[in-house]
Write a structure and sequence with these properties.
The complex is a heterodimer.
Chain A (H helix, E strand, L loop, with lengths): L2 H16 L1 H30 L6 H26 L8 H17 L5 H26 L3 H23 L12 H6 L2 H4 L14 H17 L1 H11 L1 H6 L4 H27 L11 H10 L11 H20 L4 H31 L3
Helix pairs in contact in A: 1-2, 1-15, 2-14, 3-9, 3-12, 3-13, 3-14, 4-5, 4-6, 4-12, 5-6, 5-12, 9-10, 10-12, 13-14, 13-15, 14-15
Chain B lengths: L8 E10 L2 E11 L3 E6 L6 H8 L7 E6 L2 E3 L4 H6 L2 E4 L11 H5 L6 E2 L2 E2 L1 H15 L14 H13 L5 E5 L7 H16 L3 E5 L3 H7 L2 E6 L2 E8 L5 H9 L19 E10 L6 E6 L3 E6 L5 H8 L5 E8 L2 E3 L4 H6 L3 E4 L3 H5 L6 H6 L3 H4 L8 H14 L16 H14 L4 E5 L7 H16 L3 E5 L3 H7 L2 E6 L2 E7 L4 H12 L8 E2 L1
Parallel strand pairs in B: 3-10, 3-11, 6-9, 9-10, 15-20, 15-21, 18-19, 19-20
Antiparallel strand pairs in B: 1-2, 1-4, 4-5, 7-8, 11-12, 13-14, 13-16, 16-17, 21-22, 22-23
Helix pairs in contact in B: 4-5, 14-15
């Protein structure tokens, strides 16, 4: 299942060399179609090996819930990848925001959605601050977000230690349990909105995908983010307020991380200090497998969903086949490596194209 | 190992191609032991390419290099040093925190068991300074030295590798007259020691004062090779540099409203980056050229107009109103100033993005609707429109900018400012690395833009291009305006006047103030 990914990368580049425009569009689409084919094939394969894979409540529902959460995490990373940065603190920003939501529910007794709003604001603020530090100091985003990760780790642990007894908030707002357990079949009448396998949480993901997709494909700011990622010097000299865009991309990343933190807390049943500690690697896997470039300038929202789905299907399937957690992580590590190499090969080939006279 | 009569270095019919351009096309050079040789040529004639080949930075696509009678292939700068060739670049390459001795012996620091042998280092450095007849404190850090002293330390450093061929690239550009005289005294001493010295300089007076022989490059070819300088006059040499083949392309006369109010006025402006008392005006429909050597402060002046440099005193006026440009966005949206940068790949284009993105970037602000929505049809149409208007050869608005040829890329870099409907356009080195035919088309385009009423400030180091396009030529030297030349498109007269101003001579041509 790893070979097709590499092949696709090479096809993209060699096709592009001849005539980039139409084939490039096709290559992006082809990559996503390829992902769909691979995912479908894996689902069939795992399903025939273990019929339990098709169990709506026991397998599909949690699988889709994980995909829902991790796709938002992927979008959070994609937001900074679009400008050629990375956010190593994506998980800790989720924890930081979840902490505010926990406080909002436990100590300030806010209802579900106002609490979520506070969490999103906290995420936007911490992301924006990170972006601002990067823009002003000019220090690499890797270094700044790594430092931010440590700082937030300390802060979050400290606050939980002071305000809670078991490193988790105990009061949950009304409606949270419903969100966790309800599927689409539970909330609507008849059979209009389908299956008990689809968790309600997925609606947040769809909403996030629509907003982020609209931003990047339809708006001025989205286009400017991509151009900052492509070539920040040229962006500045073309009148794009590059510093503001850098801050904006990181604020968006923080907001999406906060949403993911909320979703994970809902899925897990409580706001805890460890929220987001598993986010970092999946946050890169989803976008990069889906065609987002690490070097900036190219993103894909659908690709992020598909990339995340692929990794989660593999994880779930291998778990059902009885493969232990450690070997699972080896497989996921290998997939990430292959995806990143494909990314690099593409970049090298497009560079070569750029300097070769036609 | 060699026959003493062999020349120390022979470059024979070197050819070097870059994508879209032939930088060297049969350039030859001969350096004899015990003589000072001048390498002359206009900007873009191929001097730096030739030097980079001799110093191992570029490999030639054709021709050969012979050092002391034996053919060599230089794969790196280290190879050149081992072949006995040393170069003193125009930019200083010393480590400021290190001492004079450490800098001089940097390329070959004497060591024993991995530790620096300070005694040997001092002895070597002293020997190099003695060759130059210099008296400097070996332990003093380089950062405390004067410009002229660092220049001499550079030369000492070049000598430390026991080189027999010494290349000096514009060695006096930062020196006073007295310091330059001192330097040439030392060059004479080195010549008497049997070294072959190559001097690249724009200052013809000093070339004639100290050089024995001369090679003149034009369009990548040696038009005068290893000729005794005594047999040629300054005028002959300038004529050879300039060439008669370059009879400037003539365009139909274009009406320049002589009495029109200036669109852009720079009035006694000094900037943080070092400009002093710059004054110039560009009227609508006029092309004002800004000529000067690399480092004269032309691009920096453009950036000051975009708000990227601080204006310390004086004022900038746009259509008569005093302006304080904050940033590029404001320059574009409020004052309608556009800047086509010199380095299109690094500053002008988004190579991995579509033509639409590259061209529409400046108009999103204008065509966006509620929620920042940019109508795709609109930006695509705009991109298609300008692709056709400028004759950009592409497979469509989705083509990646990186896949276009150099000339077409340059057009894309220009297109975004036209799409933005700028009124003042600063164009910086528009045709560097562009082949001769596309160049002509590009000149036509710039000329047409002016005819359409744009005020154009043209920065170019290509003198024929300047004479072809500009209505007036402002010559810059050391971040100051050295003078202005009215362009009557008589190439020889104008180029003489311009070169005169650059060389700090009182111009003999048609000069206006």
């Amino acid at each position: 299942m790893t070979a097709p990914a590499t092949d696709r990368g090479e096809i993209t580049a060699s096709d592009g060399a001849r005539s980039a425009p139409r084939l490039r569009w096709n290559a992006g689409t082809a990559q996503r179609l390829g992902l769909i084919v691979v995912i479908a094939g894996l689902v069939v394969a795992f399903g025939s090996a273990r019929t339990a894979f098709y169990d709506q409540q026991l397998t599909m529902f949690p699988l889709l819930r994980d995909i829902a959460v991790l796709t938002v995490v992927g979008l959070a990373q994609m937001a900074v990848l679009s400008i050629g940065h990375m956010n190593l603190a994506v998980g800790r920003m989720a924890a930081f925001s979840a902490m505010f939501m926990g406080l909002a529910y436990q100590d300030w007794h806010l209802p579900l959605y106002p609490g979520l709003a506070i969490g999103l604001l906290a995420g936007a603020a911490i992301g924006g601050l990170t972006g601002w530090i990067i823009a002003v100091t000019g220090v690499n985003s890797f270094v700044v977000t790594l430092a931010m990760d440590f700082a937030l780790l300390g802060l979050v642990s400290l606050v939980y230690a002071q305000t809670t007894t078991v490193a988790a908030f105990t009061t949950n707002p009304a409606g949270m349990d419903g969100l966790r357990t309800y599927s689409l079949a539970d909330v609507c009448v008849g059979q209009v909105c389908g299956s008990p396998a689809v968790p309600q949480l997925l609606l947040f993901t769809v909403l996030a995908m629509l907003i982020v997709g609209y931003l990047y494909s339809r708006t001025r700011i989205g286009r400017e983010l991509l151009l900052v990622g492509s070539n920040i010097k040229a962006a500045q000299l073309s009148g794009i307020p590059a510093m503001r865009r850098v801050v904006g991309a990181h604020a968006l990343s923080g907001t999406l991380a906060a949403l993911a933190g909320f979703m994970l807390a809902v899925a897990g049943g409580s706001f805890t200090a460890t929220i987001g500690s598993e986010f970092m690697i999946p946050s890169f896997l989803g976008p990069v497998l889906g065609g987002t470039l690490l070097t900036g300038g190219v993103v894909s929202v659908i690709g992020t969903l598909l990339g995340t789905t692929l990794t989660q299907v593999i994880r779930q399937g291998l778990t059902l086949l009885g493969i232990g957690l450690e070997s699972l992580n080896i497989y996921l590590g290998v997939i990430l490596l292959v995806a990143l190499s494909a990314n690099r090969i593409r970049a090298v080939l497009s560079e070569r194209r750029a300097v070769t006279p036609r | 190992m060699t026959d003493n009569t062999d020349p120390l270095l022979v470059a024979d019919r070197l050819v070097k191609n870059f994508p879209g351009v032939r930088a060297l096309d049969g350039a030859s050079l001969t350096l004899e032991a015990g003589s000072v040789h001048a390498l002359l040529g206009e900007n873009g004639a191929g001097k730096s390419t030739l030097i980079k080949i001799i110093t191992g930075l570029y490999r030639p696509d054709g021709g050969s290099l012979t050092v002391a009678g034996g053919e060599v292939v230089l794969r790196s700068a280290g190879d050149a040093v081992r072949a006995g060739i040393a170069v003193v670049h125009q930019e200083r390459n010393l480590i400021h925190e290190f001492s004079v001795a450490e800098n001089i012996t940097l390329r070959r620091t004497p060591s024993q068991r991995g530790l620096v042998d300070r005694k040997a280092m001092h002895a070597n450095a002293q020997r190099c300074l003695d060759l130059l007849g210099l008296d400097l404190d070996l332990d003093a850090p380089v950062k405390g030295l004067s410009v002229a002293q660092t220049q001499l330390v550079e030369i000492a450093k070049a000598l430390s590798t026991e080189s027999r061929v010494l290349l000096l690239d514009e060695p006096t550009s930062a020196l006073t007259l007295a310091e330059a005289d001192r330097l040439f005294e030392i060059v004479g001493r080195l010549r008497d020691q049997g070294k072959a010295i190559l001097l690249v300089s724009h200052k013809l007076e000093e070339v004639f004062a100290i050089c024995d022989t001369v090679t003149v490059l034009r369009d990548g070819t040696s038009v005068l090779e290893a000729a005794p300088l005594a047999e040629h006059s300054t005028d002959e040499v300038i004529s050879l540099m300039v060439g008669r083949s370059h009879a400037a392309q003539r365009f139909a006369p274009r009406p320049v409203p002589a009495d029109g109010a200036p669109a852009l006025e720079i009035d006694r402006v000094s900037t943080a980056s070092g400009h002093r008392d710059i004054s110039l005006q560009v009227r609508r429909g006029e092309i004002v050229g800004l000529y000067g050597l690399v480092g004269a402060g032309r691009t920096e002046l453009a950036k000051a107009l975009l708000g990227l440099d601080r204006v310390v005193s004086g004022e900038i006026r746009v259509n008569g109103d005093t302006v304080h440009v904050k940033d590029v966005r404001q320059a574009l949206n409020t004052y309608r100033i556009g800047y086509v940068p010199e380095n299109r790949k690094e500053e002008g284009l988004f190579l991995d993005q579509s033509l639409t993105m590259n061209i529409a970037v400046t108009v999103w602000e204008r065509i966006r609707r509620a929620l920042g929505y940019v109508p795709r049809r609109r930006e695509r149409d705009l991109a298609v429109d300008y692709t056709q208007r400028l004759g950009i050869r592409s497979s469509g608005p989705d083509q990646l900018a990186g896949n276009l040829s150099g000339g077409n890329q340059q057009k894309v870099s220009l297109a975004k400012w036209l799409a933005a409907e700028t009124e003042i356009l600063i164009i910086d080195e528009p045709t560097v690395g562009i082949d001769i035919r596309t160049k002509g088309a590009f000149h036509q385009l710039i000329w047409q833009l002016a005819a359409d009423g744009l005020a154009i400030l043209l920065i170019t180091s290509d003198l024929p291009e300047m004479v072809t396009l500009a209505d007036r030529i402002m010559v810059m030297r050391d971040f100051q305006i050295a003078g202005a030349v009215a362009n009557d498109h008589e190439y020889e007269r104008v180029s003489r006047a311009v070169i005169g101003l650059i060389h700090g001579r009182e111009p003999a041509g048609p000069v206006v103030e």
